[in-house]
Amino acid sequence: MRMKNIKLPRAALRIAIRLVLTAAVLFGGYRWIEGGETEIRASDVGVADLLAYEEQGEKPPYALLMQEAGTSAGQESEGPPIVIDPADYGASGPEARLETVAGAEGTELHWLNEEGWAEWTFDAPAAGWYELLFEYKPLEGGKGSIVRGVQIDGAYPFAESERIELQRNWKDAKYPYDRNEIGMQIRPQQDELVGWSVKAASDFSVSSEPLLYRLEQGKHTIRLVGHKEPIALKSLTLRPKKPLPTYAEYAAGKPAPTEEAAWYGVKEAENFERKSALSIQTDHWNEPYVSPLPKGHITYNVLGGQRWRLPGEWVEWELQVPKDGWYEIDLKVYQNYRNGFKAYRTIEIDGEVPFRELLRYPLEFNREFTIETIVDPEGKPYQFYLTEGSHKLRMTADSSPLLPVRLALTSVLQDLSAFDRDVRRITGNYSVKAYDANMDEKRTWDMKKFDPDVEPKLDAFIRRLADIRDYLNGLNGKNSDISEALLNSIDLLEAMRADVDIVPNKINDFSTIQSNIGTWMTTLTQQPLLLDFIVVRTPEADPGFKEPTELSRIPYSIVDFSRSFVMDYDMRKHNREEALTIWVQRGRDYADLLREMIAQDFTPKTGIEVNVNLMPNPNMLILGNAAGEVPDVALGVGEATPADYAMRDAVEDLSGYPGFEEVFDRFIPGVRRAMNYDGGVYGLPEVQNFQVLFYRTDIFDSLNLKAPQTWDDVFDILPTLQENGMTMNYPKADFATMFFQQGAELYSEDGLTGVLTSDEGIKAFKRWTELYDKYNLPIDIPAFFQHFRDGDIPIGIADFNTYVQLLVAAPEITGHWKIAPLPGVRQPDGEIARWSPQGLSAGMIMKKSSKKDEAWEFLKWWTSAEVQAKYASDMESFYGIEFRWNTANVEAMKSLSWPSDDLKALREQAKWAKNMPYVPGYYFLNRELEFAWNATVMDRIPAQESLEKAQLSLQREMNRRQKDFGIAPGSNLHVPQVTQPYEWEEPQ
Question: 820: which of 89, 397, 595, 693 fits an S-S bond (Cβ 3.0–4.6 Å)?
């Protein structure tokens, strides 16, 4: 049945319009990729951005702006450039710390923090499209890029202008790399190249060329809004747009080719001149013909891969040519990270893209290392005219060709989620435990009676997904993993379309579709590429380099295996038996980076050698302690472990070591009290796992709700949510938040007695249980992430893992959710108490260590702000946001790459951190309170009676354990009391 023959209601008409728009976007995008971005900009237009703008009234996306501009945005604009002196700002926000400094070449504006704004007034001599260039220098701050928002005449002209990234420049501190005692290379530290740079405002996930700002003739204002990192500015320039030449135009403007003697030069990829991010790293590779060959040693001989994948990340090399002339460029690349996908790089020479065809240049998917000449679509090599001497070659990761797919998929998934919620509201299709649909297959439905648009909606979903799949396959020239996920999703929807009355019984298929597609969506902006070397050569030259084959691997593997019998891999022969021994209860990636940083920084500074070993099971520490085989330092242990071992005199008290107070002040007092026992301190926090409030801004806006600040606010919004088939998540096991917010403690100050039945404790327990038996929150939600993503539980309390999961696995709701501090209890002075514990892992020194002083030096180094910030930055840069290191060091926490709004919420919640103390018998507390909760909520036993029973059982176990540990009645375990929130020190 054709859509045009159906008399569509308004909702169905909207879906039909979206279908047409999606098709137009996708086919227009393909046409742009074939024809060149300057000529046609349609590929920048995505249905998701378009609909978000139309329906929500948000800032228009750059893609929509370019579509509305049509071909005029690609034409040359007339008029001279507009140069603005940053020191001559006309206004600024009170939070911005601005200083005018006399530099060697004139005045400079130093923006010493990352907050506030600064504004300038200027005249545009002619109407047109302008590129915005920053002449800037990073000031001392964190390791991340500088981020500023750009407003024109008081508003962001497009959404991407809200976050313009200005990168720092980095270089390996040493090349060639040093080797250790047994010949393994050590990756050097990264040095920041501090100096002035000129960069145009750009976003390589949206466009391969600089972003354009439309100016009419006359007076305007430009405002920079601080987001991340301090900056020095020497000039701001609005330069009229100039289109790039084609390759034919480029070649016609250069001297005619002449026959030259064969010559070639090789540049190892790891010998780069500079790069834009710490995340871009060298790696070691072992196979035939890799350069240089490792010969049994760890040799960093390639660059990139998954460590060079994000749009906008670039690497620059210096190439030398012997004389003026025409040259070709070969790249030895490995492009097997995303099955079936091309990888794109925009290529510059000496700071400019020579011709249009080098925008988003595609490198084909291949399962092996291959030597690829830079060629045109017909396979004919591009030739570059280079003058004698040095030239800069820069390659920038570019995902802009995939923008239409990403935005169209986002739109479809958002509409599917809304359709899912509508069906659930119609059918009441929720289970008691709020984690599955009510699959009553005996019940029959007449879905068209309740939703007359159900068939056209499903038709639109199927056709939109099919169009996206066809476009993606056309772009890549083959099937890919995401194409298969799309095909499976289409099959599920077609089964529903064949009989719409089964939709209520297939409701979980919508979550399946979201999970399948969402898993692959995150890869659409990723462009991993591994590079071995670059060859610049005359067209006549044949360097004769070989590519690996299965046959060549056989003798190579035999030789490599033979080396293992004769090479020395035993570090203990090189004075390592006297080294400090560290056991790490984390994954190998974490331990490898720690080992690398120790070799780069700790050992050279202190002279202390270190052996780092994995501890895959915490029982190894228990068994080792019993056998007398323990490390000097244990890292990554649970927050209760230091106190547990302290009760048994198996771990060192750190409070007597030199500089202890300064070191312990690195952490929030409420967090560090978990490290205390009987007046001593037995561990140092490493990472923390906070709880925050998550809420869906799109759903809250549609219901006219605001994020709750107090529990009374929560109880006010629950009826509205429940009337719309929604609810809230509260982790059932989290009793401590309720107790602490009501001013209740769980133990007495001497740590010998449980105090569950205090007036405050009874009040807290009642509120905790009333969430479920009075306010009807779901008891068990094993997959809050999925319900939050679907929208049926649009608000809830969850931890750091959920934050990372939403960023990585739910791209379709990016921009539609936020975090906030936990709801709290308003105090008489108006302050809201948001007390809550934070999960910890810690480091500690074992009592049986013979190197306690060296171990203390290591812990001081390891928990310092500088080291924690670098470790956090490197982990996330190397392995992605799913490896974000949420350091417990308060100074290092401020330097991490959190969005500014999220960091504010985290800091507000972190200041109310209050962890449980650990005393003998502490493990009974959770058990007894769970029993009490079950008795009150499930068996309807009065709250006070349940709590009194828990108190008796807890005290009985505490008394027994005190006797076991020889703690006499009347003793004092000195439980630290935390009554005031932590106050963050702000820079002056």
Answer: 693
